[in-house]
């Protein structure tokens, strides 16, 4: 089994909903997330996944959030933009593309700072 990881950082703000019985004050983080892909096999070039295709997919997912507020963009206009919910959102978007007999998305970990992260996996 092979495991491939790709990480990306971007700046965005968020404000948790119903945090200690009130909505949080918006604040900014330099977010980092890492996706982990597992594969049983390699392609003809010896790769488990194509990094270029994976980078393009990641860029498409995070582009709307870069420099913006999570709270203003679906689905976080309705659900709280917690680190956990962000990890699941990214996982769900990538899992629809990376899903074959030999290759699966294993997990997505999101850090809101260097000391605090959440991981989503199935």
Q: How would you sum up this structure, described in words?
A:
The structure is a single chain. The protein has 122 residues and is an alpha+beta fold. It has a single domain (2-121), classed as 6-pyruvoyl tetrahydropterin synthase/QueD (Tetrahydropterin Synthase, Chain A, 2-Layer Sandwich), CATH 3.30.479. The chain has helices at residues 51-62, 83-95; strands spanning 2-14, 27-39, 103-113, 116-121. The relative contact order is 0.22. The mean pLDDT is 94.
Brief synopsis:
With 122 residues, the chain is of the alpha+beta class.
Structural class: alpha+beta
Number of domains: 1
Give the overall form: elongated
Query: Given the structure, what is the number of helices?
Result: 2
Rg result: 15 Å
| Top-tier CATH class | Alpha Beta
CATH superfamily: 6-pyruvoyl tetrahydropterin synthase/QueD
| Average pLDDT for all residues | 94
Attribute tags:
four-stranded antiparallel beta sheet; 2 helices; 122 residues; alpha+beta; Tetrahydropterin Synthase, Chain A
Write the layout of secondary structure elements.
Blueprint: E1 2-14, E2 27-39, H1 51-62, H2 83-95, E3 103-113, E4 116-121
Antiparallel strand pairs: 1-2, 2-3, 3-4
């Amino acid at each position: 089994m092979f495991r491939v990881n790709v990480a990306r950082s971007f700046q965005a703000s968020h404000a948790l909903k119903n945090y200690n019985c009130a909505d949080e004050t918006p604040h900014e983080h330099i977010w980092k997330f890492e996706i982990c892909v597992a594969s049983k096999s390699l392609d003809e070039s010896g790769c488990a996944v194509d990094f270029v295709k994976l980078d393009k997919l990641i860029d498409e997912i995070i582009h709307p959030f870069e420099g913006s507020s999570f709270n203003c963009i679906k689905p976080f206009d309705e659900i709280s933009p917690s680190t956990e919910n962000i990890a699941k959102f990214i996982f769900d978007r990538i899992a629809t593309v990376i899903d074959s007999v030999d290759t699966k998305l294993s997990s997505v970990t999101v850090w809101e700072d260097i000391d605090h992260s959440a991981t989503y996996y199935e």
